Amino acid sequence: MKKNSKRFEELLKKIEVDKIYTSQEGVSVVKTLASAKFDETVEIALKLNVDPKYADQMVRGSVVLPAGTGKTVRVAVIAKDLKADEALKAGADVVGSDDLIEDIQKGVINFDVLIATPNLMGLVGKVGRILGPKGLMPNPKTGTVTMDVAEAVNNAKSGQVNFRVDKQGNIHAGIGKVSFTEEQLLSNLTTFVKAINRHKPASAKGRYIKNATLSLTMSPSISLDTQELIDLR
């Protein structure tokens, strides 16, 4: 069994391991756990009572966090003509069509989010095997396949978080930086969980959120009150 580092043990002393924290308490405590030399990400992890092997229980979507994510997001857009111009005006970092696809085929991926207009998804399909494993494939459910490229670029730049449940029913997401205020983090947390609740599958039975934790990039986790989260609407 791997032994915890001295730093980790010191952080454990700041939390009550067996306590279930409210969202407000969790945010307050997690800010005291900063110990790295960089601005750590505040991460939420949810265990959902769904079985993703069934298509009607796949939880997937996106949400724009009110206080942003604290990250600089590089956005690429596959579009032509007027839509390409709209993307550039909205602040996209890379805009193209066949030329951008060629770059991706060569392994040149200098973006964090890829947006595409529906009419060019056939083109994007050529690099699906490259984009898919990296989580970069545009998808209508996350708002990255759209004719409104300006809004999509703005959302990506201003704090949009995409989420997708894994095979075990877990969802992980960064909801800000430890340097954010408690109010900003609580607002982001609440907004994120509300989005998860809105995506609850009709076929999901029982308690929707089974477990929830809050942590920093390099800290132990804090257990959150799942009933409080389930009640968020």
UniProtKB/TrEMBL annotation:
State a single Gene Ontology molecular function. structural constituent of ribosome
What is any one GO biological process for this UniProt entry?
regulation of translation
Under the heading CDD domains, the entry gives: Ribosomal_L1
- The entry's keywords: Repressor, Ribonucleoprotein, Ribosomal protein, RNA-binding, rRNA-binding, Translation regulation, tRNA-binding
Q: Which GO terms describe its cellular component?
A: cytosolic large ribosomal subunit
Instruction: Read off the PROSITE patterns from this record.
Output: RIBOSOMAL_L1
Q: How does it assemble?
A: Part of the 50S ribosomal subunit.
Function, as annotated, reads: Binds directly to 23S rRNA. The L1 stalk is quite mobile in the ribosome, and is involved in E site tRNA release.
Report the family membership.
Answer: Belongs to the universal ribosomal protein uL1 family.
Name of the protein this chain belongs to: Large ribosomal subunit protein uL1
Species for this entry: Campylobacter portucalensis
Q: What is the organism lineage in this UniProt record?
A: Bacteria, Pseudomonadati, Campylobacterota, Epsilonproteobacteria, Campylobacterales
